[in-house]
């Protein structure tokens, strides 16, 4: 079955990225990579320690111990206040993660002509490289490969099926383990807000899943560039693995950028990727969404006269295409779905959709 996602993103082209440029002596950073508008991140010192990133122990959450309810309440408050957490005891094999690290590093070190086999095709967003939508577009300091992996019939035949066999097999094993983790977390997140578990399964089981692998080369002036433009994800849940242990992921909390050392019940956190001056950084992000044919919006079991919908409803496929039809831009895409209340002269509230 042919994918319906081809040629729906307007007139686009792509560039392969910055690895070749970064491997050469670089005295001046090209203008289209310089980002003077970027806000600085918080710097930690003795008098100003960084806020502690929440840690969720999955083993405690799924056990039958007496602290399970306490851990579930902790998960709820973490997602509501932060929209971001680190998972420990997640169950993904350490041996698999090490193998993934070696395979991803090997992939990005392939000659450019080899990686060009997976280059993003005109009018699409899947593949290796960066999508270019305008001549004056500012570029991220990173090379990436993005692709839809589920449903299987939507996989591009020139991407994952053509990867080196060892890399392909490792990715398939990783997909399987992280998919189990994602469904467990989604079930717990639903339970924490009293959502019917069947609703979670109906929406997300065998849903739209994708992966983005990114290589951020060192930059002589990292304060002038950005690895990944600030944005919030158009996903149900995103699971990020910082492959080689080099920090760079930052989240925006209470108006400040912090580096990482549900009908509005949970926060969709704005985040970005910073660049290191001396070391490359590699990350693998997996995105889990509802089925393409599913209608997304506030879960009906959570709505009542006291808790009206805060967001409009639309088909997942339309939401996906809408998200990728424009450049990443903070939380702008999510806000387009928000319902705004307008007061009439007689005091009656009218719900309108922000466009």
Which features does this protein show?
355 residues; alpha+beta; 5-stranded antiparallel sheet; 4-stranded antiparallel sheet; 9 helices; globular; disordered N terminus
Q: What's a concise summary of this model?
A:
With 355 residues, the chain is α+β, with helices and mostly antiparallel strands.
Helical element count? 9
Adjacency order of strands in the biggest sheet: 4-6-7-13-9
- Tell me how many strands there are: 17
Topology order in helix (H) and strand (E) letters: EHEHHEHHEEEHHEEEEEEEEEHHEE
Structural class: alpha+beta
Low-confidence segments: 1-11, 262-266, 341-355
Percentage of residues in DSSP E strands: 15-25%
Average pLDDT figure: 80
Could you give the distance between the termini? 33 Å
Radius of gyration: 21 Å
- Largest sheet, strands/sense/barrel: 5 strands, antiparallel
- Percent helix among the residues? 25-40%
Form type: globular
